[in-house]
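yo

u said u wanted the structure for the complex thing, so here. seqs first:
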Amino acid sequence: MNIVVAIKHIPSLADELEVNDEGTNLDYDMVDFVLNEFDEQAIEQAVLVKEASGGAVTVVGVDVIEELDGVLHTALAKGADKAVKIVGDLEPGIDSHTHARWLADAIKEMDADIILTGVQAADDLDGQIGPMLAAHLDMPYLGVVTGVEVAHRVATLYKEYAGGMMGKYAVSLPLVVGVQAATKPPRYAPISKIRQIAKTAVIEEIEVDDDGPGAAVMLRKMSPPVSTGHANMLPGDAEAVAEKIIAIIKERGLL
Amino acid sequence: MLTIPERFVFTFLLTVLGAVTAAGFYGIFNIVRSGRAAPPRQETLRHLIAAFIDVGLQKPIFRTRTVLSIFHAFIFFGFSFYFLVNVTDALEGFVKGFELIYGGEAIPAVAPALTPVVNLGLVNLFNLVADVLSVLTLTGMAAFILRRFLGRDKRLRFNDNVLLHPQVEQGHVHVDSAIVGGFIMIHVGSRFLGQVFRLAENGRPDWFMPFASVLSYIFRSVPPNILNVGQHITWWLAIGLILLFFPYFVRSKHIHLMAAPLNIGLGKQAPRGQLDPAVPPGADDDVEPGAKLLQDLAWPRLLDAYACIMCNRCQDVCPAHSQGLSLSPSALEVNKRYLINEEYFALAGGNRSHHLLTEVVISPEAVWSCTTCYACVRICPVGNEPMADIIDIRRRMIIGGAEIDNGIQSALESLAKNGNWFGKGSRARARWTKGLGFKIKDAAKETAEYLWFVGDTASFDARVTPLTQKVAAILHQAGVDYSILGRLEQNSGNDARRVGEEGLFEQLVENNLAAFGKSQFNQIITTDPHSLNTLRNEYPQYGGMWPVHHYSKVLLQLVESCRLEIKNKLSHYRATYHDPCYLGRYNGGYAAPRQLLALLGVNLIEMPRNRENSYCCGAGGGQIWLGTTPEGERPSENRIREAITALSQSANGSGPGGKLIFVVACPKDVVMYTDAVKTTGNEDKVVVKDIIELVEEAIGEAGD
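structre next:
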């Protein structure tokens, strides 16, 4: 079974984000990139499926800022078997359409049985890559999945619904899954293992050309939210605070 | 003098049981040797001699439990001397006329060469020492037996949740103790009684054997032939019993008397703060880091198991144990020993152990409860290092992909990703410098005498950054020429290494050394004892050879040289000082903070556990990262209560609003103890202050 994980390298939220001078997007020079956390779940789920049912895991992603190797080495240390990066003369801020098209082109060559990807990513909150991959590859898609099992070419998928309901699906392979969370929390990849792999691993490269925006919509302006006043803290013990609250309510004519 | 059949039986037993015992020792030799290589040692002979002298003076055992240690010294001196006594007793049994009583008056007739020895009174001296030590040994041993079996001293037991080898669980340690104790009582008691019988049979006392002489009067009325038979029986119970005991000795706790001095002499030579490598230097590439089975441990760790007498002193000082957690350093050693005994023949034959350490020796929960405070290693009278086992087990768990605590995992991931465990971007590291009113030199751009290694907690924790700013301002005020690395600084890796993440540690060291390499400075200062420890003791192995100072020492020098002027003496404070493990026990930094406090005018009241005996705050070894808080009284809470008791009993002045001052000199301590003051509900009684706050108050405008 060929298990493919499509991943995305996105700006780290550990940094304080800054908008570029033009106000059109993030200042990508002032931010570190990390693996999308939902993709981390997708990798873990892929390795769990492989451990339970056999197969090989291929991780593929677009190397936007030429720093994806570390992420791929980590994935290999966690149990992935093969790593592929899509490279070219690229700039950060590639939209989901382009992203999905490049990933789909790469995955077409992989004879994939099941494709896992994070249900969304913090950079654009589109949640589009999974569905678009499925469209490109002509496969069914199920998103917000919290558990995957595979047996006899049928995937059993678990999906959480609002109100604490749990759905259980049986889908024939191949298919694309948007992973919300893996069955178990992502495992830890020891650094010495990652460094060992970094010395020996061969990452396959697929060349692409950045031919401009792929979506019909474009980001025009980006800015931090304007703060509109802030909370008024009432100091003092419970009784004093209670008195102040009553005073404020009276003052505003609410009582 | 023994009869001919007696001599025959003795010789036969000596040959057979002696051979069995020798084989037993050879097995132990092979088992210990089957452990991994230890770091190379120097001047082994000198260290061994020093260890034998220390043991001879009973120094290691007197670190604590004075009364019990005195009883131990009785037994120790008695048993050491009994080596000589046993030889002369055997000679008395085999050589006609060789009799030591009455100063050896019969000896010249059979061995004229020994006449000077007799004439010098050496035999009398020997008899006197043997007589007194026999009584002392019996006293000491009786005290130990009473303590264990009648007093049922709780310190000899483990917490209920501690993983124990099945035999230990069934109480075999007590059985072993009963056998060894019984042997010593019978062996020494019979020898002593034999002397009593001899004196009684001869009808005259030998006042160089005072105790035996006094007792001999009781037996004066017993017929001589019965006393003679009694002497044969007691000879056998004294000397013959040794032969019977020999083969058991190899398996018993008693072997500590041989293993302990060896273990101390062959102990760690590197600084306390330097962990042994995860893989022995020069090992094959396929050797996995850390330990899963007995043989993955370095051989001194296997010798540890033989040196352990199961006194549980390490357990007494272990913060995890006191909290009621499942960790007991002594249980680890005892379990190792019982596992070795269980698999003795297989291991001695060169086979690998069949049991995972985490299944028999120490539970995974216990492995992750260790704060690496070093108290267990420091207190151990026989030079054991249970903490080293724990680190090696952690190392293998990490590399082997064992499930680890989610808090520790995210800390490690953040360390790998961001270079700090706060999940903050590297650009945020120097944010605390905003609003200082002056600019701190950028180490990458400007030359400075000191590089200030700030560390994660001091850089990111909102409770600590105001203190970091105070340190910066005061160093600036005193004209200290210092720089910081800013975003190029990463966590020092001290705690990552102690969690067992050797690869991450190496990565952090490399990144920091790369940053150091781009900077111009001569010395390093830090407020963080954890950073200090690895920078001082471990970075040199990677090429980082700078002198590293704690800010307590730098501040002391500044006050001593009047670059900081004391304007207010803080004599109104009722204060105590907490020694951080990684400054004190690991690096001997006891004096500077105390001298500094004295110069500030603070009347320091020591807590009962201070300096080498300081009690861990519970944060070290990755404990501060744990995602789940274990139940029980946390070490920091225990410590705050200790401080309040110590301070309340003192009549010295008191702080503002009558509060007691708990002085710390470690960013993690600020966090741990401010928290503990709140959780113990003592906010109205005690205030945690970093030493820098006291410096600030003392150098402030008079009357502030």
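DSSP finds six helices and eleven strands in chain A. The domain at 2-207 of chain A is CATH 3.40.50.620 (Rossmann fold).
cya
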